[in-house]
Amino acid sequence: MAVAWLDDVRSADVDHVGGKAASLGELTAAGLPVPSGFVVTAATYREFIENAGIDEELFAAVDVDHEDTEALREAHERAHELIMETPVPDDVRDGIVSAYRDLGDGERFVAVRSSATAEDLPDASFAGQQETFLNVREDALVDRVKECWASLFSQRAIYYRNRQGFPHDEVDIAVVVQEMVDAEKSGVLFTSHPSTGEPQIIIEAAWGLGEAVVSGSVSPDNYVIDRETAEVETVTVADKKMMMVKDEETGETVEREVPDEKRSKRVLSDEEIDELVELGERVEDHYGTPQDVEWAVHGGEVYMLQSRPITTIDEAEADDAAAVAGNGGANGDSNGSEGDGDVLFRGLGSSPGIASGEARIVTKLDHLDQVGDGDIIVTEMTMPDMVPAMKRASGIVTDEGGMTSHAAIVSRELGVPAVVGTGSATRQLEDGQPITIDGDKGTVRAGAEAEEEQHEPIEEARPKTPVKPMTATEVKVNVSIPEAAERAAATGADGIGLLRIEHMVLSLGKTPTKYIADNGERAYVDELVDGIRTAAEEFYPRPVRVRTLDAPTDEFRQLEGGGDEPREHNPMLGYRGIRRSLDNPGLFEHELEAFRRIYEMGYDNVEIMFPLVNDAEDVVRARNLLKQAGVDPEKREWGVMIETPAAALGVESMAEAGIDFVSFGTNDLTQYTLAVDRNNGRVADRFDELHPSVLKLMGDTIETCRDLGVKTSICGQAASKPQMVQFLVEKGISSVSANIDAVRDVQHEAKRVEQRLLLDSVR
């Protein structure tokens, strides 16, 4: 059968109906207000291309270098031509039309939305890459379905799948057909801050249909609600110049100017905010994870149009979060307030970080080739075609758009600072003008600041309570990049429990092999030494535990020189960690050389940690390579990650090989213990670091290590959870390494548990 009704669809059907349809089916089953509809299944698309014999030519056409803008454009055009020029079989056409006629009175306007089988996953969002068509009726329905199929090969979709390591021939597409909500007002709702994960509900709202908000073509009102108190913290009323509505004569979706009396009028009432907050919390409770929800209001009724996991929250940088900045630029105010110094104008800080560079005004796609490394793209709104140039840029500034615009979503995923919805950046800035943007505060300042002035003040990370809780359990901190070491040190942590070398390597933009070929071995080792030394100096004499390279092949494939990387179905289970290092000892010795030089400089607080170790054989081989590199394992602290059940069960033999410590990586240990691929939306709800089997592996390992005199630690995200801290402290773990923003909370939790254990022992 070509179609399935949303009433019959559930999350387990994601492979058949795609992420969007599966989510809508779940929301419908949960009793949430979802418009009626059906889905043209992914199998229908697959049968269409295979029975027509265009599948092999289609996949060959999109097998291109995704960094080549022209190649991407040609690939998209050929794929679109193949699909649109191939007729749909009569039985498929009849099935779609018949379902449409059963929807309402058979004369309804419908929304036709793509629903790819690899979108809306917990760790990667492919949403927004395929087409959506509004106010469609029977005469255009089948053609719009085909347009959705063809949009599976849009330029952004091709680029993104390549970067994420998703083979094109393994991704299918379904199409959702729903009754249109002729929205008077609409927008999006985040149940947590989309960049930082702070407990804030953020609502964006505009007049008319929500596509204007999602596409970034209008700057919406912005409402920030404190989840704990339910109070509205800030209301930013934007100058809403245009809206998307249905033309009553033609039925087409058109842009119209917002009437003068509504341009600067607040879209949502307090009562509507309360209702949206309640619905958002119900959606999050249903899925158990922060959600990005699209909504619409018609006739006083609120409808839920879509929900997907928020995939852009960076917990390690949550301490950098700032309240969403006022959208002065969108209201035509180009002057900074008193004390803002050289602020030219403001927008919404949609992707955190500070970037300086020359403004590159992009008003046509032809201008993209002029964007060089380190430039700041300034444009009215970004489009999928701009993604390769956005990756080269150091920052993004747009005239229009909100927190869910293309610019905001892609910038957060690429890790590029962005300020959106400024209102007039393309008109106020000159091409080549040096500027500095702050993606946290939403400001654009004149001039390029010196690098050392671009870091966020460390005061935000400094504990608000001055007295550090004294605990027998050491509380350390996770540091993703050396540049964050100063803020991390300000937390008062007992050291760094995890500093990742792969972040230093990935920041080079080239694979190690390519970087060495271009710059020499010494230059590569120098980069590693500089990164490690930055953190070691900041924390000295507190210990800094540095993990050797653990980059999966899909991450390396994104870098220059990554074309030779193997394509693995699940890179997390593949060629990474110590197995990669041992397989390529010539390259691994450069990392070990960096450690040798660090010790020669006097940084004896550095400890070495090997990732994804399975057994004592791995440990012995790594130890022997340490010796060959001139690092004495008898004098230096070194250990291994416990990320697999094999490592946990074999820790005694690894201890005999001489390790000083072990550290639990809960993300991987949970994934491998429960057979849960965190990138698979069908099973992601089963990912639970507090599962009894995971806890038993950790508890037994701690007990064994205590008997053998081996220190134990944890450096996974779960270390910031109170329940995990309670369990580990009770078991006698040596140290806990938390995210920067969670250090003081974990210190207090550890102290509370230790005091309870002491009281229990004397009662």
From TrEMBL:
Gene3D superfamilies found in the cross-reference section: ATP-grasp fold, A domain, ATP-grasp fold, B domain, Phosphoenolpyruvate-binding domains, Phosphohistidine domain
Family membership noted in the UniProt record: Belongs to the PEP-utilizing enzyme family.
Keyword Metal-binding: yes
Pathways per UniProt: Carbohydrate biosynthesis; gluconeogenesis
Chain ranges of the Pyruvate phosphate dikinase AMP/ATP-binding domain: 15-321
Cited PROSITE patterns: PEP_ENZYMES_2, PEP_ENZYMES_PHOS_SITE
PEP-utilising enzyme C-terminal domain boundaries: 464-754
Listed EC numbers: 2.7.9.2
Disordered: region residues: 445-466
A Pfam short name: PPDK_N
Record's protein name: Phosphoenolpyruvate synthase
Keywords assigned by UniProt, alphabetized: ATP-binding, Kinase, Magnesium, Metal-binding, Nucleotide-binding, Pyruvate, Transferase
Domain PEP-utilising enzyme mobile: 373-442
Recorded GO MF terms: ATP binding; metal ion binding; pyruvate, water dikinase activity
NCBIfam families assigned to the protein according to its UniProt record, in alphabetical order: PEP_synth (TIGR01418), PRK06464.1 (NF005057)
Database matches in InterPro entries: ATP_grasp_subdomain_1, PEP-util_enz_mobile_dom, PEP_synth, PEP_util_AS, PEP_util_C, PEP_util_CS, Phosphohistidine_dom_sf, PPDK_AMP/ATP-bd
Reaction(s) catalysed by this chain's protein: pyruvate + ATP + H2O = phosphoenolpyruvate + AMP + phosphate + 2 H(+)
GO biological process, one term: gluconeogenesis
Keyword Ion transport: no
Enzyme class, broadest EC rank: transferase
Role summary: Catalyzes the phosphorylation of pyruvate to phosphoenolpyruvate.
Cofactors: Mg(2+)
